[in-house]
Write a structure and sequence with these properties.
By secondary structure, the chain is of the alpha+beta class. The chain is built from three helices and four strands, in the order ααββββα. The protein starts with a helix and ends in a 16-residue tail after the last helix. This is Lipoprotein.
Amino acid sequence: MVPSRSVAALLLSSLFLAPACAVRTSERRMAPEPPHSVQQELGYNDVVRLSQEYATAQGYEVSDVAEAQQVRPNYWRVRFGLAPWGSGKLLDLQFDEAQRRVVGSTEVEASATGGSGPVMPLPSGPPSR
């Protein structure tokens, strides 16, 4: 009777193992991790700092950062308030994060844009004043 016990144990264990092996598992694909907020914050800070350095080198007296917005990957629009504070003059800079340089600039009146205004397309070519 001993052989029948081992056959029974084999049959019983196969009853449990067969369905477990037959169950289809969902596919797991490696999804890229989104950038960490620290990386995003460092990118923002670099863009603002380099844009401010550009504005100062061009002779502008920057009073504050009115807005910094990533328009599309690696392209930012940074808007500075110009001195004197409250004058209503703004400096709009387009910044290429990949090249780490300003690719366009425009001086605008705050009233002409209605505040921060819509996102402007990036110009191609050298920066203009």
